[in-house]
Amino acid sequence: MPHVSDEDAALQALGSLDTLSADQQHALDAVNTILNDGEPFVDVHVLFGHYNILYFRSLLLPRVDVLWSPRLTLCAGVCELSRDPVTNKFTRIRLKLSTPLLQYRPRSDTINTLLHEAIHAYFFITTSWRHSRGDDGTGHGEGFQLLADAINSHGNYEITIYHTFHDEVDSYRTHVWQCDGPCKDRPPYFGIVKRSMNRAPGKSDSWWSRHEAECGGTYTKTQEPAPTKKKIEAMSKKERAGRQKNKLDGWLKPKEKQETDGKTSHVLKPSSAEDNAHSGASSGKRKAANVS
Ligand SMILES: [Zn+2]
Ligand SMILES: [Zn+2]
């Protein structure tokens, strides 16, 4: 069997988004109806069924069982292999969502966590379980980031590569580019591209030529991720103290801005994740979190 890497599998999923099939379009309509229904809760099973068709080439069902776990407390979500009751072989996948961690958070956290784990499940299946053995070290390598970024920009989600909410409250680890052309005034993206990977918008993006023709603007980098834990540990005491101060400023300033300009949805502000999910442009502190 030819070896399929996470990246190969991600590119296949990306390819399926270039032109949506009738089934995918139907799933997208259903997802949008759910996302706009204004309810505080969401049926993850129904949503997962639609995402399976829309983003994962219909490969996840019936193999993946989605369930809420009252005992999962260390991370918001987890994806694990499980035995098929008939064959007794590890050919099924359990995607668990943490009831205690997610039940009181905005539902966008549940949705982003569901998508994060669904990406793991997709790689488990497409790479013949190689992904589950963690060959790339983290489970969140290039392939994961490619697919997460594609889904984020397609549906305006906030899937990240982090495992706990705490990690993300700590820092904004996101690369952001802003277009200076007419699209910067257009919802839902306001000319903003956000990625967990430092990959500038360009020819490798399926939408690139359309953007060249319709907008023609130039993307400039406007935000870099905060340093990783490792980097911070390597910093001197003084540097760390300075960083702490900047972080506090960072939390306070956008709030003032928000008060004077309530309509500015695309400034960076520590607002609720629900807001973030709709603005598509703010860098929220709450994003999907979990473990592979
Ligand atoms: Zn543009
Ligand atoms: Zn993960």
3D structure, described in words:
- The structure is a single chain.
- The protein has 292 residues and is of the alpha+beta class.
- 43% of the residues lie in helices and 11% in strands.
- The protein is built from eleven helices and six strands.
- It has a three-stranded mixed β-sheet. Strands 5-4-6 form a three-stranded antiparallel β-sheet.
- It is globular, with a radius of gyration of 19 Å.
- The two termini are 25 Å apart.
- 36% of the residues are buried.
- The model is unreliable at 167-173 and 244-292 (pLDDT under 50).
- Bound molecules: zinc ion (ZN) (2 copies).
- The site of one zinc ion has 7 residues, from loops.
Strand content: 5-15%
Number of helical stretches of at least 4 residues: 11
Rg estimate, integer Å: 19 Å
- What profile does the largest beta sheet have? 3 strands, mixed
Largest sheet, spatial ordering of strands:
1-3-2
Bound molecules: zinc ion
Structural class: alpha+beta
Strand elements, count? 6
Helix content: 40-55%
SSE pattern, N- to C-terminal: HHHEEEHHHHEEHEHHH
Average pLDDT figure = 77
Region (Disordered): 218-292
Protein name: SprT-like domain-containing protein
GO cellular component, one term: nucleus
Pfam family, one: SprT-like
List the topology elements.
Layout: H1 6-18, H2 22-35, H3 44-55, E1 64-69, E2 77-82, E3 92-98, H4 99-102, H5 107-126, H6 142-155, H7 165-170, E4 175-179, E5 192-195, H8 208-214, E6 219-223, H9 229-234, H10 237-260, H11 273-279
Parallel strand pairs: 1-3
Antiparallel strand pairs: 2-3, 4-5, 4-6
Helix pairs in contact: 1-6, 2-3, 3-5
One zinc ion binds at residues 116, 120, 139-140, 290-292.
